[in-house]
Design goal:
The protein has one domain. Strand 1 and strand 2 form a beta hairpin. Strands 3-2-1-4 form a 4-stranded antiparallel β-sheet. The two termini are 15 Å apart. It is built from 5 helices and 4 strands, in the order E-E-H-H-H-E-H-H-E. It is α+β, with helices and mostly antiparallel strands.
Amino acid sequence: APQRKQFNLVLTADHDSKALVMTPIPFGTHAERQAQIQWFQMLFADTSIFDMLQNYTMGDGSDVALGFVTKRLPLGGLWDNAKKVGLIDALQYGARISVT
């Protein structure tokens, strides 16, 4: 069986689109970094037509392009609740997510 490795992401808040954004932070050898990016794109990246349309309506063309290397989670009406409980402020500089 392949050895389990660590996969790192950063979670940030996008105030303009009122969304949480997950971005992979690949590390290791060139092959390991490529595998991590491909894994992220397969499982999380905003690559479906629905995701692309959603990113366009919530932001602009650049958000659609960034969808291939990010995952946007629009909060919509929950944004104000997230601000009230301090989540948005806590993500001001991003939060590391580590998956093993």
